[in-house]
Amino acid sequence: MIVKDIVNRDIVNLTNCEQEPIHIPGSIQPHGFLLGLKQESFSIDFCSGNTEEFISQSHTKLLGKTLNEVFGDQVLAKLLDYIADNKMLSSLLLKLNLSDKEFLCTVHKSGTIYILEAEPVNDQAKQPHEVYDHTSQFLTYLHTTNSLKELCHLVAEGTREITGYDRVMIYRFDRNYNGEVFAESCRADLEPFLGLHYPHTDIPPQARDLYMKNLLRLITDIDYSPVPIYTIDDQEEKNLDLSLSILRSTSPIHVEYLQNMGVGATLTISLIYKNRLWGLIACHHYSPKNLTPEIRLAAQLQGHFITSQIDLRQSQEEYEIARKVNASFDKVDMFDLTVDNASFEELVKIPELITLCNAAGVSLVVDGVVYKSGLAPADDEVLFLADYFSEQTENSSFVTEKLIDHLPHRAELCGEIAGLIFHALDMDTNNCIIWYRPETKTEVKWAGDPSKSIIKDKKGLSPRRSFELWKEIVECTCKPWYQSEIEACAAYSYSLQRQLNMILLTKEEEKYRKLAELLKEKNAELENINWISSHDLQEPLRKIQLISSHLLAEEEVSSAVEHSLNRLNASAERMQTLLADIRKYSKLNASEDPFEEVELGVILEQVKRNALENAEAAVDISWDKLPVLRGVPFLIQQLFSNLISNSIKYAKKGVHLRIEITAWDEKLPFEKEDALYQVISVQDNGIGFEQKYADSIFNIFTKLHHASQYPGSGMGLALCKKIMRNHGGHIQAKGELGVGTEIMLYFPVS
């Protein structure tokens, strides 16, 4: 059997300490020993190198043997009961007799290995009633304090009394994990650390992760020599995760850091609040010091107590703030905005709009107009902020306590307002509401210059050695926004946005109402003009025709005069036709007649009879099976009557005219639309037209030929287009000059 140690010998320095695998050091502290037992067989697979000092058996003799082989069946039975009762990592320690010596043991599981850590029973340990008395006294403290700071001070004193450490600190983290000594109890001859701040680099991320997993960390002697852990060499890269270990060896970087502080021993208890490392109970002793497992658990229990109180007392503080915020929200949310711009001026003057989030001022931007109250920048600066944050947030929201970090080139503006809450009120404009807070200058006392938390000397990089007081004035920063304040601003912004949308809708409705009235007036005027054109203008045309007819009846009229009178009569007739078409077009509005099923074949039979009666030359009009359409029968009849009349009008001389009407089998979309249409084609072999005129021929009064060649008003196809539009459809034309024309009608598929 080959035995090897698992000591992590990677060179660690401050350039790579954030990647240091501190959970697998491969060694432990020497005040106890460690056994790693396989889950199934309980054979010893890992063993610390100091077992001979405690149980007079070396690690080489222990590795590979089962626990009962070494210590007997009774020890194994007690361990199995302990595991079965789920007491691992609980406050109840496992007491075992190993090689005729009493040990207090902790047990936890690491992968498939049970880790058993044993420390000898201390005859000088405090009696259980002493520990209970300390805990009971601590419980009374909880009921005699009002603030969180008072409570933390009493916890520091109680922890120092029960543990006997020279210094006990309640260490609190900010959002960036910079630390502050929030409360402290220390020996009278020691310099206090209360109020000092420590940079986040003092506790790297992986160390904070371990504090979240293992709530208690003990170093009995800073100058200890690490004890290697050995294992049977039966696989490559064999290791043991000691994240939950009590005896786990400490990072050499951390040891050097504590040595620079002059510390001899430490105890650290994690304080977890809302699944985040809120802080630590940090105990320092200036000489080596060990605690019995009972005392450690008592101290850890105080950590649990303070954690519960942190949650309770901060919740109480936040509740009080939230209560005031909600009262302000209810008051300001009752204000009823109107379309009158003066309403916005009244809104920003309501005091509760500012106290909603305990701001110092507020501004509202609506349609480029600035309304503001309290501490707020000049109007042009407000508009700049509105434009800037609308673009940066894509018309969303933004919160900051240090505006200059985002607008470093606007130092003058940031000197006036240090923090703000921004909420957009529109997706397409810079309409927004912004709350402001002024600068709150803060003096921060650091335990040494935070910019020199890592120093470089002839030995390379190392932790800072200086912890002398270093002061920093924090500028251009406002008081932090509470979550309840941020949420209240968001809630009111959404409410205000709804009100603005309602105002916008009201304005749009008013605008459309006025347009509708104007349109009604214009339609009345057009109807009046149509009446004049269809009635009053008919009378002079009839007189012109009557007079010209009388003159033509006179025998003395010369041929020149006769020709002129005939032209005059024809012009009057064309004028009457045009007026009739205008009357038809103006009356062809969206029909109020209900749609019904229309047999297209039946309609075309009637249209064909009328067309053939009036045709001057032979015409073939044919169709195959045609569909049933939904529409207004007389309008569809007029549609096809116009199209067939058009084909007859523009027939080629000397060519037998053929008109074919076809229903396409496949339902098709019109251009880029998704909807499907029934397509009906009307195709002839007439004179045709150039395709560039395919759209313009549907415009009113559009004619491609002189009236002397092809008479008409130029309104026939315009009427067809209007009929198709009234049916929710479309019309298209294809033509080739000298070949013919095809008109395609797109009827909606119901």
TrEMBL record:
Stretches assigned to the Histidine kinase domain: 532-750
Q: Does the keyword RNA-binding apply?
A: no
Keywords of this protein's UniProt record, alphabetized? ATP-binding, Chromophore, Kinase, Nucleotide-binding, Phosphoprotein, Photoreceptor protein, Receptor, Sensory transduction, Transferase
Domain of life from the UniProt record: Bacteria
Which stretches make up the Phytochrome chromophore attachment site domain? 147-304
Q: What class of enzyme is it?
A: transferase
Mind telling me which Pfam families this protein's record contains?
A: GAF, HATPase_c, PAS_2, PHY
Among PROSITE patterns, the record links this protein to: HIS_KIN, PHYTOCHROME_2
| InterPro entries tied to this protein | GAF, GAF-like_dom_sf, HATPase_C_sf, HATPase_dom, His_kinase_dom, HisK_dim/P_dom, HisK_dim/P_sf, PAS-like_dom_sf
Molecular function as annotated in GO: ATP binding
Statement: the UniProt record of this protein carries the keyword Nucleotide-binding: yes
Q: Catalyses which reaction?
A: ATP + protein L-histidine = ADP + protein N-phospho-L-histidine
Enzyme Commission number(s): 2.7.13.3
Q: Which family does it belong to?
A: In the N-terminal section; belongs to the phytochrome family.
Q: Which PANTHER family match?
A: PAC DOMAIN-CONTAINING PROTEIN, PHYTOCHROME-LIKE PROTEIN CPH1
| Full protein name | histidine kinase
What species does this protein belong to? Algoriphagus halophytocola
